[in-house]
User: What shape does this take?
Amino acid sequence: MQNQQTSQVSKMQFPIISVAPMMDYTDRHFRFLLRLISKNTLLYTEMITTGALLHGDYQGLLAYHPAEHPLTLQLGGSHPDELAQCARMAEDFGYDEVNLNIGCPSSRVQEGRFGVCLLKEPQLVAECVAAMQQAVSIPITVKTRIGVDEIDSYEHLCHFIQQVSQAGCSRFIIHARKAWLKGLSPKDNRTIPPLRYDVVYQLKRDFPKLKIILNGGIQTLQQITSALEHVDGVMLGRSICQHPYLLAEIDDLLKLSSTPSLSRVEVVEYFLEYIQKQLMQKIRLNSLSRHLLNIFHGVRGANAWRRYLSEHAHKTEAGIEVVQSALKFIL
Assistant: This one.
């Protein structure tokens, strides 16, 4: 892929609406579907570690459809030189920006010394950001939480933001929960620690020149419009897995697009063309159709649609006729 001369993210107007990187979910198939729904939402890859890129199938890991832009590569790592090398790879592949994960609380990232445990080491994070920023011309951003374990004071968070911003990061995505590395699973860390939107809003007031994006627990249009009174954007996560067409409703509400959004049925019909091409590449239908399960969230026939896809898409010879047949429950 050719390197883009101007990052599409740099052209985006705030507020920025984005979809969080989610392991085993925000793969390239889901991102292509989301791009059919919204032309403006900033999309993120699943987190990819520096080790996987430097020692694995980097071309396969970095592959994406050109329609996915604007697109961010999220990296996990803590070695400045390795992160800089991976950032250059991302730029060469045409990604619009690179995001450093300082939020994931899984045991795997703790063992690898990256993710939310790095919130305890602001100087190291600053060195990582500086190394990446010096290596590429595309933006480097950071996704973090408001605290980790006993280190959860507002003073420490401000110290972290100040050090990392001085290294060249001007946009922070803040998951408004702390993380507990011991005692809570990654799943529990997404729901049990209380949301503290007030902390994120205060960050924006204290660092007005930085772009602050709120993440965590946002599910409705009302929550989005309320948050945007205080911050520069919102990042949505599991709510988009449960209701992907919400992105079209956001586009329409905030007038983020000059063209009307596709209807749900139109989205499925365009995605069928994509599915057909992927099937020719030996991709199984259920790897693709799983992302369609909730496209008709709240629409009559949605339960029958989901049930039919779930019962038939996993079969070895399943093709687009399965999706076409499921559509009969909606049309």
In short: The two ends are 39 Å apart (CA to CA). The beta strands are 16-19, 43-44, 48-49, 71-76, 97-102, 140-148, 171-179, 211-215, 233-236. The longest strand covers residues 140-148. Confidence is low (pLDDT under 50) at residues 1-5.
